[in-house]
């Protein structure tokens, strides 16, 4: 029997505890991206622009899976979106071929942004895509 998403998991805080999303088929982990701030002035020698490191922005969390309208995953996601509050999350990414070697865990807080639900598939599955924006640092730990 195949593991959905090779065993990737996603948990979102429900106000009391971290609660797992059901039937996760794929995840996109948060990745930091640096920026540069220009510091060039008109008196610079050689006419070359100069820069200093800027702020770090962490990419969106994207979780894909299957659910049904009204099931626990759907209700958790839309409830946290409606709360309009920073919410703790935890995501795990399996290693090569779903194994433990090379596996990582990501944890932090995010602002839940959307829970898009697709059309019912011929197999009776309802695909979803949850998106959250990390609102601070995210820890990445080898597990």
Order of helices and strands: EEEEEEEEHEEEE
Radius of gyration: 19 Å
Structural class: mainly beta
- Distance from N terminus to C terminus (CA atoms, Å) equals 24 Å
Largest sheet: 8 strands, antiparallel
Instruction: Give average pLDDT, whole number.
Output: 88
How many helices does DSSP assign?
Answer: 1
**Silhouette:** elongated
Contiguous runs where pLDDT drops below 50 for at least 5 residues: none
Helix proportion of residues, in percent? under 10%
Beta-strand portion reads 35-45%
Number of strands: 12
Write a structural description:
- The longest helix has 12 residues, at 72-83.
- Strands 1, 2, 3, 8, 9, 10, 11 and 12 form an 8-stranded antiparallel sheet that branches. This protein has a two-stranded antiparallel sheet with strand order 4-7.
- The mean pLDDT is 88.
- The chain contains 1 helix and 12 strands.
- The protein is mostly beta strands and 143 residues long.
- It is 8% helix and 45% strand.
